[in-house]
Design brief:
Elements lengths: L1 H31 L21 E2 L4 E4 L2 H11 L6 E4 L3 H15 L9 H16 L1 E2 L1 H9 L4 E6 L2 E6 L4 E2 H9 L8 H5 L11 E3 L1 H12 L5 E5 L4 E3 L7 H18 L2 H29 L7 H23 L12 H9 L2 H16 L5 H18 L6 H26 L10 H12 L2 H12 L4 H7 L5 H9 L1 H20 L4 H10 L26 H21 L4 H9 L7 H10 L20 H16 L7 H17 L10 H18 L12
Parallel strand pairs: 3-5, 4-7
Antiparallel strand pairs: 1-10, 2-9, 3-8, 5-6
């Protein structure tokens, strides 16, 4: 019951660990995704459309052009009549003032009794038609207003502008009389402008209401585009109708992005979309690569790369300064393929480009191009051991981009002159940036604890410091390591294991013998120091070459995978020579096996299992009395079958078929290594 509870608690920990990764990935990606869709298309009338197929993603009206709307508004505004309030008392008050002034002082200037009657009638006529400021009357003429509505005693009268007086015109009407012959100079002395006051007041409320009523009859749209409807395709010429549709889409796009509801819906959609994709990838890992959840480095580099490229794409879309096609998206599958496996590389690449596509304006074309380029990169860089391989892969990726885009261009254009050639410059820049994968590998190795084939090739160089020192201090061990490395590489190639990894691991598996080289038979020259020691002491010295090797590896900063070969090449096996010899000397004693046991652990990868088999077989083959096909075959079968029976390979994913293949390879190689050479004859005298 206790073990069941422990297992259940462990499962909960793994569940919460996965949830944490999921939430962190979704939160980071969604945070950088643009909330406001941007209409970044550039187009002009009578020019070809240089982007891919454009379809309406929502319903929107086709708005009329500004000139067309302005013409319609100008036409309908000809029937617009602004409203003015006519003061009912202003004229009467002014006329009363005039009569009073005449009787008091103006009679002395013009004693003619017809004068006040004439002025009174003229003022009544002027105030009945209305007086407005000169500036306002000029504005009405400028706006081509021909008539106005005069509100008087709750009635509205339409009156021509030509009948309306300004203060200047009213004064001229008073002094320039044709019916009554008064001296103009005499009239001017009467200061008649004192009796001319504005009595037409602009009614802003009624006028604006009337204007809105008129303009409401003008339609700003002359059609409708439905969701999913094709607007334009690559290479098509933008005519007036299409131009209006594109302008309408841009206007509607900007309008939709201004609403808070639209932004909330966009955010929710982004969270849902990203969550589904990240969830699908985590399901893939759970089904096919469950061991990655236990390897923190593998999981970290996967999600780092998956998050990195959508973030870069979002930043480039939000701050457009260059095309998104210069971003080397194929760097992701390359790195994942080098460090992990090709299937996960492809899945991670597809996930990444789908996440990037939701902020792009032509997602279908982007997904198609990146998918094919990603497949080309995975195929062209299955193993990276030389810089020239990366250059070749970059060239293949650029060619894949270019050929596929050229094919799409040919499908959508009607004339060769319409082909878009600028995009190929972006593909070339993409290929150049892809070359930075090589130095980036070193950073990722140190950050996430991986070891690439490039590093393994560098480590397997026999001229490096540690290998050169071993060849000088322990030449026998050095030669043994080279032979084991050759056996391991040949076997690994046959069972589809990592040959470069196992070769490098084999070259370093016995570096611990450098501290006490004379205690190992391959380095002895007649004198055996073990003759002076007990079997237990000898066993401890031999066993110590494993722990010493690990310490030496740490001192020289060797990768963890190489240290694993040092730890596992003997597993938890016994130093059988000393154990059996001790047991023979003490037949009645119960021997403690732990004093003769290697610290382990047993191999837990296919490569480590090959290493253990090759190490034992190569060492034992040196003690054969004769090298025949039968003796070599029996030796290989005996040693490897013994290791299988001891359970040394229970913890690694190697099959019986693989083991049989490894045996066959070892037998072939050992026959070649120990074949009998012919003796050359001597010249007879």
């Amino acid at each position: 019951m206790k073990s069941f509870q422990t297992e259940r608690q462990f499962s909960y920990k793994k569940f919460f660990y996965k949830c944490g990764i999921f939430l962190a990935a979704v939160a980071i990606i969604v945070y950088f995704l643009p909330r406001e869709g941007q209409f970044n298309y550039q187009f002009d009338i009578n020019k070809p459309w240089k982007y891919g197929l454009l379809q309406a993603s929502f319903d929107f009206p086709i708005y009329k052009g500004e000139d067309e709307v302005q013409r319609e508004q100008d036409s309908i505004m000809r029937s617009y009549h602004p409203y003015f309030q006519l003061s009912e008392t202003m004229g009467e008050r002014i006329i009363s003032q005039f009569k009073e002034d005449y009787n008091r002082k103006l009679r002395q200037i013009i004693p003619d009794p017809t004068y006040p009657h004439y002025i009174e009638q003229k003022l009544k006529e002027i105030y009945r038609k209305g007086i407005m400021p000169v500036e306002q009357l000029a504005r009405l003429h400028k706006d081509s207003i021909l008539s106005i509505q005069i509100v008087y005693q709750n009635t509205s009268i339409l009156q021509s502008i030509s009948e309306i007086y300004s203060t200047k015109r009213a004064y001229e009407a008073l002094v320039n009389s044709d019916t009554v012959h008064f001296s103009k100079t005499l009239l001017q002395r009467c200061n008649l402008n004192n009796y001319l006051t504005v009595n037409l007041i602009y009614d802003a409320n009624k006028s604006e209401t009337a204007k809105k009523d008129l303009l409401s009859g003008v339609s700003f749209a002359k059609g409708f585009v439905m969701n999913g409807q094709k607007i334009i395709d690559r290479g098509e010429i933008i005519n007036q109708q299409t131009y209006n549709i594109l302008k309408s889409l841009q206007r509607e796009w900007d309008k939709r992005n201004e609403t808070t509801t639209e932004k909330r819906l966009t955010l929710f959609g982004q969270i849902l979309f990203v969550s589904i994709l990240i969830g699908c990838f985590m399901i893939y890992l759970a089904l096919f690569r469950r061991d990655y959840y236990d390897k923190k480095g593998s999981l970290s580099i996967l999600f780092f790369l998956i998050i990195f490229f959508p973030v870069i794409s979002s930043l480039m879309i939000s701050h457009p300064f260059m095309s998104v096609y210069i971003v080397p998206f194929t760097m992701l599958p390359m790195i994942v393929r080098i460090f992990l496996d090709s299937r996960t590389a492809f899945m991670a690449h597809i996930l990444s480009i789908l996440l990037c596509s939701i902020c792009l304006r032509t997602p279908h074309e982007f997904i198609l191009l990146q998918t094919i380029a990603g497949m080309a990169s995975i195929y062209s860089l299955r193993e990276l051991s030389q810089r020239s391989q990366l250059l070749r892969s970059a060239l293949i990726v650029v060619v894949a981009y270019s050929v596929l885009y050229f094919a799409l261009d040919l499908i959508h254009v009607n004339d060769v002159s319409q082909l878009n050639t600028n995009i190929y410059i972006n593909f070339i820049i993409n290929g150049i940036l892809l070359l930075f994968t090589y130095p980036l590998l070193f950073i990722l190795e140190k950050t996430f604890g991986f070891t690439s084939n490039v590093t393994l090739v560098e480590l397997s160089n026999i001229n490096n410091k540690l290998m050169r020192e071993m060849s000088e201090v322990a030449p026998g061990t050095f030669n043994h390591s080279l032979q084991v490395a050759n056996l391991c590489a040949a076997a690994a190639n046959r069972i589809e294991a990592n040959s470069q990894l196992v070769r490098t691991g084999a070259m370093y598996h016995d570096i611990g013998k450098m501290l006490n080289p004379a205690f190992f038979t391959e380095n002895q020259s007649g004198v055996n120091p073990h003759d002076q020691l007990s079997y237990k002491q000898s066993a401890q010295i031999v066993i110590s070459h494993v722990t010493d090797g690990v310490k030496l590896a740490e001192k020289n900063n060797l990768p963890e995978v190489i240290k694993d070969f040092i730890r596992t090449h003997h597993g938890k096996g016994l130093t059988k020579y000393f154990y059996i010899s001790y047991q023979n000397e003490h037949p009645d004693e119960e021997v403690d096996k732990e004093a003769f046991r290697y610290p382990g652990p047993n191999p837990f990868t296919k490569e480590q299992a090959i290493m253990m088999m090759a190490d034992s077989v190569e060492a034992a083959s040196r003690s054969l009395p004769e090298y025949t096909e039968e003796s070599i075959s029996n030796l290989v079968d005996k040693i490897i079958d013994s290791q299988v029976q001891d359970g040394n390979f229970k913890e690694c994913p190697i099959t019986f078929k693989d083991i049989a293949t490894v045996k066959s390879v070892f037998k072939e190689k050992l026959k070649t290594m120990y074949h009998t050479r012919i003796s050359y004859p001597e010249l007879k005298k």
